[in-house]
């Protein structure tokens, strides 16, 4: 007979499997449906594995209280019924059957007998001497009535001095690709059975907790060094193996959550599909030069396809596609061997210690693959293999960090020496910078004094506009916003507000130039035509800054609103600035021309436009730069804006003019809500009220 792939696989890993796949304990073996255990004593010999030839009744759930009906045969157990070698050929995986075994005891057997059923595919009932002792799911003769459940069962039976245990097992499977008994069935004393169960639960619980804690530690490690993804990938490996562990053995997940069999089965398959690829991913980040990124991407893509198919397909179909993933698992293991061999060949740090742990993990992985396919009788060893793998990896990471720490300590010593040398230099440099900063601040403070001195005094403004206020708040100590006035008599004369390019010292220098030009060209002022003066001022600024030359690169200039005030009327012209009024019919905005003064644009022949406003006693006028409108704040950080200003002016109509300055300033500060001042601010307000 040709050797099958399964036989080849067994031979290839025989050396790894002998310690776990064979038993060297002499134990009775059932023959023709009867097992003689009279000479077996549980307290002395341990648990008894009920192996051997059981009665097999295909497509029957026999009455456990009556003798077996004719037509049965004897089959070896444990073994899946679709793997039985029968003359008529293999049986289908889906179906139902009964198994029967009589166990002969003597008086030294304990009165209370414990029984441990590891796994049946996929539902069973177990009777002893006609009494239902153990059950998982609902074993029935139709798919509709059968409820699958894979949970190890530990139960006890009072034999009442019976010398023969008549064990009848009803098994049903209408969903799995394998039907019947997968694993051994044990009997012994009650204490032995419960001790075995408790040890298994404790081992799996401790192992799962340890893996999760190690994974959590590496997540924390990654949070401190986000540029190094290796700890995060290793945490993923620990999490996958920890979750896989609670789905195997005692199936701790089903002790914590009553999962439907459909959901449990799909999660089991998804965790199996993820195992090998995450190890490949970890190796990729551990030894990137020895890895094949294209193969990793291919395996991850296949894994994703199998996981998606498992989620979408019914469980019965998802079960049948599982064997097609075994070659991917085998390729992953061979790939891991290749990567580790190259890492050792290239003498990568920690590769030998890591290889030892990986070898144990691969061996247990192959073992579990064969165990899953019922080629060997053992238990799942992947969690224990991962524990060895984790310890080797912990050593590897500890060694890496230890070397890093050693290098850091060496660098720290060098830095400490440099620091001692630099401290004196830094102290000296700090003193020099403090002296220079003090000199600069003194210069700026002096510039502030100079700038303040060229602004109109309160007495000068009082002569022109008796009822007025001024808010002048540069963003820095000095700024580019200014105001200017020239009184020609009581309540008659010129007043201007300007906003120059730049802030701080550059803006202040531009503001002083603008003020100087205003004073120099003031003889050109015409009360009924301020726009003409703005035109002349534009020419003067462009000439001063050489902006009309072909290679002129000076983009400086300023915006300005210029107004001539006389009793009952205000005539004004704006260069990219306007003014606001508050009269009986509410607030209003009068825009200026769209171009400023200076700059490369507008051209020298640009003409500004005049506008005139009739004023009544009690009317208010506000001239300002755009610094107030541009102040950001509010919930969304938007600018204060013209619409909000007009609404504020309408509210100010209800208050005396003497309060307008304070209320206006307070409203802007509240809107800013701690936001830094963005621009220089100047506001000049006056009222035509008498008295």
From TrEMBL:
It comes from Spirochaeta africana (strain ATCC 700263 / DSM 8902 / Z-7692). Residues 1-25 form the signal peptide. Keywords: Hydrolase, Membrane, Signal, Transmembrane, Transmembrane helix. The chain crosses the membrane at residues 201-222, 229-247, 267-287, 299-319, 325-346, 353-372, 378-398. Residues 460-688 form the PPM-type phosphatase domain. It comes from the Bacteria. This is Serine phosphatase RsbU, regulator of sigma subunit. GO terms for molecular function: phosphatase activity. It holds the Pfam family 7TMR-DISM_7TM.
